[in-house]
Structures are given as C-alpha cells and as structure tokens.
Amino acid sequence: MDNKTKKLNRQRRHARVRTQIIGSNKRPRASVFKSNKHVFVQLIDDENGKTLFSSKVLSSKKSKLRGSKTKKAIEIGKIVAEKAKSVGINEVVFDRGGYKYHGRIKAVADGLRAGGLKF
C-alpha cells in the first residue's frame, strides 16, 4: 500500500465514525490527529461548529515536553483535560480520527482519563 491509499482509507474510516459521534457544548468531541512527529487534540462543539480548546505536541526541538512520542501524548491529554476541567467540562466523546486505538491515540485517551475526564 502506498501512502495515498493509507490516507484515503483512514479518511473513510474517520467519516464512518463521525456519523455516530457528535459533540455538544456540555459533552464535546475530543478529536485526535497524529502525524509522524506531532499529535494534535481538539475539543469540538459540533452543534455550534466551534473548537473549544486545541493543543498540540510539537517535535522535541520545539516542545518543552521530553520523552518518547507516547509519553508526550499522555502529557498532552492531561493538559487538555486540565483546560477542560477549568471551564467545567467533565465528559467528552472520544474521536480517534480513523486511527487504531493503539499507541499514541490510546496514550492521549489515557491522559484525558488521568486528567479527570470521562468518556
């Protein structure tokens, strides 16, 4: 499989998942995107079409977080959870973005749970 096919397959999986998952103001959608170097997490209110919070883990040259990419993903989950708790959000709907629930995606989910958010 080439990269174009992999990307299209992930986008199709994500579109299928998105028909079921809808975020609201009280229970936003926690959307995760990963590239080879970075992890991006957003809390999205789909009813109003607004992003409530966004956070990202940059490459180790730009980021203050240290460790493996998986450890950084856990930390970014905790950071997003703290931001959400400060505004009064306690529950989210987790959107894995068409990726397998494995590795950095699972680490972000674990970080969100460790920060006190419920799925």
Automatic annotation (TrEMBL):
InterPro entries: Ribosomal_L18, Ribosomal_uL18_bac-type, Ribosomal_uL18_bac/plant/anim
Coiled-coil segments: none
GO biological process, one term: translation
Family annotation (Gene3D superfamilies): 3.30.420.100
Annotated Pfam families: Ribosomal_L18p (PF00861)
GO cellular component, one term: ribonucleoprotein complex
Record keywords: Ribonucleoprotein, Ribosomal protein, RNA-binding, rRNA-binding
GO molecular function: 5S rRNA binding; structural constituent of ribosome
Origin: domain of life: Bacteria
PANTHER family to which the protein is assigned, alphabetical: 39S RIBOSOMAL PROTEIN L18, MITOCHONDRIAL (PTHR12899), LARGE RIBOSOMAL SUBUNIT PROTEIN UL18M (PTHR12899:SF3)
Assembly and oligomerization: Part of the 50S ribosomal subunit; part of the 5S rRNA/L5/L18/L25 subcomplex. Contacts the 5S and 23S rRNAs.
Entries under NCBIfam families matching the protein: L18_bact (TIGR00060)
Family: Belongs to the universal ribosomal protein uL18 family.
Role according to the record: This is one of the proteins that bind and probably mediate the attachment of the 5S RNA into the large ribosomal subunit, where it forms part of the central protuberance.
Protein name, per record: Large ribosomal subunit protein uL18
